[in-house]
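Quick review question:
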């Protein structure tokens, strides 16, 4: 066989990660994916805010499982190499790696995008197994994948990055959203060729009428990261070690970028901001600069169901109990203030305490972004109220914002 664009792609993306000046070893994620490989729990959907390491993890999984790559040198000094199942799965399987954002940017509609995905996979398959043309020429792509599985003798690892971009960019087109969910279900559900399906995105899987078309997936999100909590961002020990190495003040690092937490990982830092602060040698707003403040202002502008009063409460270092279960996992179907707050958790603008079911503003960087957004939409009464409060450092934040 040979490397393809989508079937068994190169491991170069992970090689770039390893060559970076700062690389934090998250390879023990593979111990979990190996554990669920070829089981009913082999369907994994990981939702994280932007720049929280989703694509790095996807590249790592491709490098590890891809049988057309020789990745032993890459992993020999990483933590996963000490795991008893490490050798069993290293470079043993066909991998189909799809970045849905790339496909969507090349297509004018969801229908065209789905056709393009099938055709690109088919082209890679035909380069290796031209005898499968009898299925592909008739558009029988699932039969082609079944035959690939039978011919190769190995299950397929599906890695689907940016899976939710359809729901973020076609956020009002529910028909196309459902078509895309049906495509994923047809591709993956109850297929014998699936050894592992690993999807990443910002949003959890879209629910229709309290149900999901992809109900075979176990979800690991910002409201419940479960066993994968230590892989969301950087942990306390990781940041302490980095601060020591780069001679940065740990307490200040925590004030700026800490604040996310889960029962399985009490302290989680924003990885993008930590790395940039270490490389630049100074603390600043880094993660929030990757998108304009309007992203937050859109939801403030709605002032939906008492949102303004909630923001005041959060800004005075209080917490608010919410119900995250009513959120339908899209960016427009809001029935209550809780739904907007839940979206802000998934976007990274709020922390969530799973035990108390409360939301809070996690750190100084996010607080600064709230200040910019509040000023932009003209909530002057909030600015005045918060400046008068002795529970907040808004005055300093406004000066920096």
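Suggested answer, residue by residue:
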């Amino acid at each position: 066989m040979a490397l393809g664009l989508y079937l068994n792609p190169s491991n170069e993306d992970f090689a770039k990660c390893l060559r970076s000046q700062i690389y934090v070893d998250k390879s023990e994620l593979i111990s979990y994916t190996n554990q669920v490989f070829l089981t009913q729990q082999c369907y994994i959907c990981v939702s994280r805010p932007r720049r929280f390491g989703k694509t790095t993890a996807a590249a790592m999984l491709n490098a590890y499982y891809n049988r057309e790559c020789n990745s032993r040198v890459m992993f020999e000094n990483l933590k996963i190499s000490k795991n008893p199942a490490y050798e069993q799965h290293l470079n043993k399987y066909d991998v189909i790696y799809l970045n849905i954002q790339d496909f969507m940017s090349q297509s004018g509609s969801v229908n065209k995008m789905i056709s393009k995905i099938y055709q690109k996979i088919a082209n890679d398959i035909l380069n290796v197994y031209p005898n499968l043309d009898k299925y592909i020429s008739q558009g029988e792509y699932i039969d082609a994948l079944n035959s690939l599985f039978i011919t190769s003798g190995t299950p397929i690892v599906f890695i689907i990055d940016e899976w939710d971009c359809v729901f973020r960019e076609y956020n009002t087109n529910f028909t196309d959203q459902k078509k895309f969910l049906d495509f994923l279900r047809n591709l993956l559900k109850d297929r014998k060729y699936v050894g592992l399906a690993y999807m990443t995105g910002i949003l959890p899987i879209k629910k229709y009428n309290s149900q999901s078309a992809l109900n075979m997936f176990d979800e690991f999100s910002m409201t419940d990261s479960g066993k994968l909590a230590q892989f969301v961002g950087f942990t306390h020990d990781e940041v302490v070690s980095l601060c020591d190495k780069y001679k940065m003040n740990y307490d200040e690092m925590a004030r700026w970028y800490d604040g996310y937490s889960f029962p399985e990982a009490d302290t989680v830092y924003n990885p993008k901001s930590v790395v940039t602060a270490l490389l630049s040698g100074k603390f600043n707003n880094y993660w929030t600069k990757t998108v304009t403040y309007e992203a937050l202002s859109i939801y403030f502008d709605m002032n939906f169901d008492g949102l303004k009063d909630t923001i005041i409460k959060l800004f005075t270092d209080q917490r608010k109990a919410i119900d995250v279960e009513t959120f339908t996992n899209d960016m427009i179907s809001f029935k209550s203030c809780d739904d907007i707050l839940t979206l802000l958790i998934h976007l990274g603008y709020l922390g969530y305490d799973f035990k108390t079911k409360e939301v809070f503003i996690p750190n100084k960087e996010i607080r600064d972004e709230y200040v910019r957004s509040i000023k932009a939409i003209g909530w002057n009464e909030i600015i005045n109220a918060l400046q008068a409060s002795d529970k907040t450092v808004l005055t300093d934040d406004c000066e920096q914002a």
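Why it works: Residues 110-128 form the longest helix (19 residues). The radius of gyration is 22 Å.
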